[in-house]
Amino acid sequence: MTVVIGFEGSANKIGVGIVRDGVVLSNPRRTYITPPGQGFLPSETAKHHRGVILTVLKEALQQAGLKPADIDCVAYTKGPGMGAPLVTTALVARTVSQLWGKPLLGVNHCIGHIEMGRLVTRANNPTVLVIALQDIREERLDRARVRICDKLSRKNLVKLRAKIREISPCFCKPFKTIIVPINYHQNGRHSSGGKLPRTGSNPARVIKISNDPSPGYNIEQMAKRGKQYVELPYTVKGMDVSFSGILSYIEEAAHKMLGSRQCTAEDLCFSLQETLFAMLVEITERAMAHCNSQEVLIVGGVGCNLRLQEMMGTMCKERGARLFATDESFCIDNGAMIAQAGWEMFRAGHVTELPDSWITQRFRTDEVEVTWRD
């Protein structure tokens, strides 16, 4: 039996999870919550994580009924994510690794989401829609692309990767799957205050939606009460989607429309969800068509949104395909997903030496050498 402990702290959640041979033994976490209308600064988020991470670590060991001696490997989120929180998490993981005398392993955040989704749902070879909130300062990505990785030798994969690396946000090798990455980046001072994409301003902040328990959850609940659909820009070009028009429209029109009672905040939340999710469903279906896929797996924090699951499920039903999704316990950032990915990697011979145990804010998924799957 192999037991791996995982530390996740790439954004406003800090979690520690323990996995033993595909069984989640514990998965406690804490969330840094800011007042309505505000995002979370990297430095303040890191300060929050430093204040609670040891408590969360103790909870994880107690809930699992294990001692440090029972752990075989210490995994941590290497990136992508916010610099200061990532550094805090990595420092604790490195310290624990040395104190306990256990191997250390850096894990890609998105790979963690995918491996946890596959573990929980038992999906075989799905098209994966990764909807993750990755707040990376000084970078903004407003589009997503898809790349097909199927029946390519490792030699050819290396050659192909070199050619497309600069234009493909996600090329996972050698996953026999299509990954549609929707990463919400920013280049502003504050990190994102919600689970919807942003370019300079977040809809949750514009509408002053509470951050407790999370803006994304509150947007989903408000959308259920929306009755009027407000037409928003819809931009899909092949496998590329653009959210900038929607967000600019919200920034400029929200207060005016709400002030004149042309619509309600609930109507805006409803319209945002319907438009954004329709775009995601469209490109996911196109990705499925490219490789004749019959499975879809939704992972990442937004993946627990029931309306997104409903819309994706309708598309899958029409295609005779199957939809796989998880609830908030595993969709939202957590330590167990890092532990599970670490478990797969550790058993395949992966280990991160201490001099290499840095963090990478822009850790691309296509930089991961996937050797634990056929």
Automatic annotation (TrEMBL):
<keyword id="KW-0479">Metal-binding</keyword>
<dbReference type="GO" id="GO:0000408">
    <property type="term" value="C:EKC/KEOPS complex"/>
</dbReference>
<keyword id="KW-0819">tRNA processing</keyword>
<dbReference type="Pfam" id="PF00814">
    <property type="entry name" value="TsaD"/>
</dbReference>
<keyword id="KW-0808">Transferase</keyword>
<protein>
    <recommendedName>
        <fullName>N(6)-L-threonylcarbamoyladenine synthase</fullName>
        <ecNumber>2.3.1.234</ecNumber>
    </recommendedName>
</protein>
<keyword id="KW-0012">Acyltransferase</keyword>
<dbReference type="InterPro" id="IPR017861">
    <property type="entry name" value="KAE1/TsaD"/>
</dbReference>
<dbReference type="GO" id="GO:0046872">
    <property type="term" value="F:metal ion binding"/>
</dbReference>
<dbReference type="GO" id="GO:0006400">
    <property type="term" value="P:tRNA modification"/>
</dbReference>
<dbReference type="InterPro" id="IPR043129">
    <property type="entry name" value="ATPase_NBD"/>
</dbReference>
<dbReference type="InterPro" id="IPR017860">
    <property type="entry name" value="Peptidase_M22_CS"/>
</dbReference>
<dbReference type="GO" id="GO:0005634">
    <property type="term" value="C:nucleus"/>
</dbReference>
<dbReference type="GO" id="GO:0061711">
    <property type="term" value="F:tRNA N(6)-L-threonylcarbamoyladenine synthase activity"/>
</dbReference>
<dbReference type="GO" id="GO:0005737">
    <property type="term" value="C:cytoplasm"/>
</dbReference>
<dbReference type="InterPro" id="IPR000905">
    <property type="entry name" value="Gcp-like_dom"/>
</dbReference>
<keyword id="KW-0963">Cytoplasm</keyword>
<feature type="domain" description="Gcp-like">
    <location>
        <begin position="202"/>
        <end position="339"/>
    </location>
</feature>
<keyword id="KW-0408">Iron</keyword>
<feature type="domain" description="Gcp-like">
    <location>
        <begin position="29"/>
        <end position="131"/>
    </location>
</feature>
<dbReference type="GO" id="GO:0070525">
    <property type="term" value="P:tRNA threonylcarbamoyladenosine metabolic process"/>
</dbReference>
